[in-house]
């Protein structure tokens, strides 16, 4: 008999677009049923700057996903970004007083609760608490303590926090579109779910999601998160530099960036010229491609150097080799991997979402700008399959229909 799937919806509120995916998740596969995207000007660098415009963009994106999937969307897994989101290292400690000394799920919950007891600045709230490792009676490096014996259980964790007013505004925008929030997930974490595989996380990897308004960084080693941070720069800044530098309208700058742009000026050909519209309708002017690429290179270099400097705050960074994977819309820029290799002096790859075991409407998802929204689906899948079934049937396909059929069967 075919396994019954669960409908999961991901809503990625980005700085340039709001993306929605409706998927039916099974234990070993995901069926993409509907996708919606809408441009937005309500979000800047991950922060809501225009609530009504954000609500409208969410509605447009969700409506499209609803129409393509035929599913009425009521609750969503939502991404959250902005440089107010950051990580804090913490430790928890509990003793196991029971005579059998066997560590239970409840003990793990207690030790994680204990690790949460950190003094946070006012208006800051915890989004995630991610265990790095457990220590039982001094023995470190334990990933799954349940069922083991011990007296003293410690947990080393990475706590992801964000600023309450900014988080509240995202909640308001989603609720303003008449949707319930299943969970808010830090955007870089969501992207790692769809782009990285467990081996990469084990061996050491840094995912850098360069979007429109932000650059989101998540570093993993030994299978667990070691650093998460978000920078206030992305592809929009590249576009604005082109518009200012070449005196061309912003929409033109965006088009030539995507069509003729390269991440390094020395990759450009000497004899290629671009016909550029000038600001204010002041005619056209041919400009050499290498001039355009020089502007792009300067800004991307600045962003990548900031990401590199951010990783230097991770003590581990200089001691081990972490490979770098770039994703997000801006990683589409040709040559960005070569530029990044010069800065990080390690292997850099560009990474679109992995589509293994994903069926249905997969075509658009090979674009790296879908990394976060697809990651939200993976996140939702894990959430439901791990037994947190509190809202299991929220978006369930045809649930109302089944109830309707059952109701009438009683009279047959
Ligand atoms: N082919 C391309 N070449 C260069 N840049 C591109 C290309 N395609 C998309 N981009 C850029 O990617 C950016 C959008 O990326 P993405 O959709 O990942 O951002 P977002 O999720 O909306 O924003 P953020 O994650 O920063 O909040 C835009 O700045 C866009 O110009
Ligand atoms: Mg994004």
Task: Give a verbal description of the structure.
The protein is built from 11 helices and 19 strands. It has 412 residues and is an alpha/beta fold. Among the domains are: 86-161, Dna Ligase, domain 1 (2-Layer Sandwich), CATH 3.30.1490.110; 198-353, Nucleotidyltransferase, domain 5 (2-Layer Sandwich), CATH 3.30.420.40. The protein has a 6-stranded mixed beta sheet, with helices on both faces. Strands 14-13-12-17-18 form a 5-stranded mixed beta sheet, with helices on both faces. The longest helix is centred in the C-terminal third of the chain and has 24 residues, at 289-312. The chain starts with 5 loop residues before the first strand and ends with a helix. The protein binds adenosine-5'-triphosphate and magnesium ion.
Major β-sheet, in short? 6 strands, mixed
Question: What is the CATH T-level topology of the domain at 198-353?
Answer: Nucleotidyltransferase, domain 5
Count of β-strands: 19
Shape annotation: globular
Helix count from the secondary structure assignment: 11
Bound molecules: adenosine-5'-triphosphate, magnesium ion
Which CATH architecture of the domain at 198-353 is right? 2-Layer Sandwich
Catalogue the unreliable spans.
Answer: 388-393, 398-412
Oligomer: single chain
Brief descriptors of the model:
412 residues; alpha/beta; Dna Ligase, domain 1; Nucleotidyltransferase, domain 5; 5-stranded mixed β-sheet; 11 helices; 19 strands; 34% helix; disordered C terminus; binds adenosine-5'-triphosphate; binds magnesium ion
């Amino acid at each position: 008999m075919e396994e019954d799937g669960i409908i999961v919806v991901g809503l990625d509120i980005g700085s340039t677009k709001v993306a929605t995916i409706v998927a039916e998740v099974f234990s070993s596969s995901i069926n993409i049923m509907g996708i919606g995207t809408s441009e937005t000007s309500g979000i800047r660098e991950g922060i809501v700057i225009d609530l009504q415009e954000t609500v409208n963009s969410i509605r447009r994106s969700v409506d499209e996903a609803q129409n393509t999937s035929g599913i009425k969307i009521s609750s969503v897994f939502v991404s959250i970004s902005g440089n107010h989101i950051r990580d804090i290292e913490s430790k928890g400690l509990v003793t196991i007083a029971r005579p059998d000394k066997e560590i239970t799920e409840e003990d793990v919950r207690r030790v994680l609760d204990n690790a949460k007891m950190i003094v946070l600045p006012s208006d800051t709230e915890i989004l995630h608490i991610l265990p790095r490792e457990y220590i039982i009676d001094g023995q470190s490096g334990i990933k799954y303590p349940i069922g083991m014996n011990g007296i003293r259980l410690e947990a080393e964790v990475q706590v992801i926090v964000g600023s309450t007013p900014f988080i509240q505004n995202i909640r308001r925008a989603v609720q303003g579109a008449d949707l319930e929030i299943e969970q808010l997930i830090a955007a870089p974490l969501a992207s790692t779910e769809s782009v990285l595989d467990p081996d990469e996380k084990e061996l050491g990897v840094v995912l850098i999601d360069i979007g429109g308004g932000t650059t989101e960084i998540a570093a993993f080693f030994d299978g667990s998160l070691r650093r998460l941070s978000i920078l206030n720069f992305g592809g929009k800044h590249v576009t604005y530099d082109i518009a200012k530098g070449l005196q061309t309208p912003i929409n033109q700058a965006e088009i030539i960036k995507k069509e003729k742009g390269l991440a390094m000026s020395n990759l450009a050909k000497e004899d290629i010229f671009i016909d550029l519209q000038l600001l204010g309708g002041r005619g056209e002017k041919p400009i050499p491609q290498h001039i355009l690429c020089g502007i792009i290179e300067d800004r991307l270099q600045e962003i990548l150097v900031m990401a590199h400097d951010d990783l230097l705050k991770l003590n581990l960074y200089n001691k081990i080799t972490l490979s770098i994977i770039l994703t997000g819309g801006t990683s589409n820029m040709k040559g960005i991997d070569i530029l990044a290799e010069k800065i990080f002096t390690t292997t850099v790859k560009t990474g679109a979402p992995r589509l293994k075991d994903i069926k249905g409407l997969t075509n658009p998802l090979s674009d790296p700008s879908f990394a976060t929204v697809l990651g939200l689906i993976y996140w939702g899948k894990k959430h439901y399959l791990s037994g947190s079934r509190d809202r299991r049937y929220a978006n369930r396909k045809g649930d109302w229909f089944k109830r309707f059929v059952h109701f009438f069967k009683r009279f047959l």
